[in-house]
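Cross-posted from the bioinformatics board.
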Amino acid sequence: MARLNVNPTRMELTNLKHKLTTARRGHKLLKDKRDELMRQFLELIRENQTLRKEVESAIGSANMQMAVAGCTVPKEVIDTALMLPKQEMSLSINEKNVMSVMIPKYSVEYKLSDPNSIYSYGYSDTSGDMDSAILSLSEILPKLIRLAEVEKSCQLMAAEIEKTRRRVNALEYIMIPGYEETIRYITMKLDENERSTITRLMKVKDMMIAENLEARHQSE
Amino acid sequence: MYKIAVMGDRESIYGFAALGMTTFVTDDGESAAGTLKKLAHNDYGIIYITEALAAKIQDEIEKYRFESTPAIILIPGVSGNTGAGMSDVNKSVEKAVGSNILK
């Protein structure tokens, strides 16, 4: 592991020790965040898959009914029938904070509360297949909205999980080992300095004693 | 207040108009990309788009994948289910987990 390029001083050592504790704490927090996000993500993604299957098959059958309606009734008549829909939908979005990911909560409001207002046409010109197609679409609608909610949440969470996982890995495999390595290096360097100082002092002391002894011999 | 849009070829989406969604009929990629951009900047919270059309403007859709609005959701069109919607879901799994664990 690459050692950081720092001077081996006591000040650096203290700084690095601080950084190491911060990095360890951050790593632990991020790891918890990742695990919790992952748990929620897996729950959501399962719901997403089942919802999607349901919605896709329902839309498929509605489309088939629509195709039948298209065969029996001229295109122009269908266009006129659906040109001016009575019903209007509006959507309000609330956001929910899950582990700092803002996931959307949709709620739909209708302009008309009457469920029959989806039929914006007289029944005389169009075929019953169209009615049932539109009815089955309107039945799947709540699921369609929920699908949008879940799928968007999954996309947002997936991005956040990836980001968090990268951070966790960077801390775990790059930052923390780097700090540890550097701290070890500085400690060893400082110890080495200390030992060399002691040896030097001992040597100097020996020399002084020898000098003293010599001086005493000469004076005698 | 947001609105809901549906994009795709005429046969696939005209039923949604009756439900009160705003429909945008188009089946060529260039105009669809323009429409999508306009919708995204104009208070459309959810945009349902047929798989066939989405395949033509994948790059445009990808841009909004990680924005909080709009949610762009693929739906099967009259031409049938291509499985693109499901593979979109699986893409999220792959991104989050690293490999697809829910096959």
